[in-house]
Amino acid sequence: MSVLEVERLVKKFGGVAAVREVSFSLGEGEILALIGPNGAGKSTCFNMLNGQLRPDSGRIRLLGRDTVGLSPRQVWRRGVGRTFQITATFTSMSVRENVQMALLSHHRRLYALVPLAARQYREEAERILDLVGIADQAERSCGVLAYGDLKKVELAVALANEPRLLLMDEPTAGMAPRERIELMALTADIVRKQGISVLFTEHDMDVVFTHADRIMVLNRGELVAEGAPQAVREDPLVKQIYLGAGHA
Amino acid sequence: MSFFVVQFLTGLASAASLFLVACGLSIIFGVTRIVNFAHGSFYMLGAYLAATIVATLPVGIFSYWGSVLVAALVVGLIGIVVEIVVLRRIYHAPELFQLVATFGVVLVVQDLTLAIWGPADKLGPLAPGLDSAVNIGGQLLPEYDVALIILGPAVLGLLWLLFHRTRWGTLVRAATQDREMVGALGVNQRRIFTSVFFLGACLAGLGGAVQIPREPISLMMDLNVIAEVFVVVVIGGMGSILGAFLAAVIIGELNAFGILIFPEITLVLLFLVMAVVLVIRPRGLLGKPELTVGAQPAQIAAIHLPGPATKLAMGVLFAVLALVPLFAGDFLLVLLIEVMLLALFAASLHFIMGNGGMVSFGHAAYFGIGAYGAALAVVHSDSPMELALVLAPTAAGLAGLVFGWFCVRLSGVYFAMLSLAFAQIAWSVVFQWYEVTGGDDGLLGIWPSEWASDRFAFYYLSLIIVAGGVLMLRRMIFSPFGYALRAGRDSPLRSDAIGINLRHQQWASIVIAGAFAGLAGGLYAFSKGSVFPDAMSIPRSVDALVMVLLGGVDTLAGPLVGAAALIGLEDAISRFDYWRLILGLVIILICVTAPNGIVGSLKLAFAGRRERE
Amino acid sequence: MVTRRRVLWATAAATMLASLVPGSAALAADTIRIGEINSYSGLPAFTLPYRNGWELAVEEINAAGGVLGKQLEVISRDDAGKPANAVKIAEELIANENVALLSGTFFSHIGLAVSDLAKQRKVLFVAAEPLTDAIVWEKGHKYTFRLRPSTYMQAAMLADEAAKLPAKRWATIAPNYKYGQDAVTAFKELLLAKRPDVEFVDEQWPALFKIDAGATAQALLAAKPEAIYNVTFGSDLAKFAREGKLRGLFENVSVVSLLTGEPEYLDPLGADAPEGWIVTGYPSTEINTPEHTAFRDAYKARYDALPMLGSIVGYNTMKAVAAIITAAGSTDTDAMIKAAEGLTVQSPTGPFTFRAIDHQATMGAYVGKTAVKNGMGTMVDWTYADGADYLPSDEEVRKMRPAD
Question: Which superkingdom is the protein from (chain C) (predicted)?
Answer without folding.
Answer: Bacteria
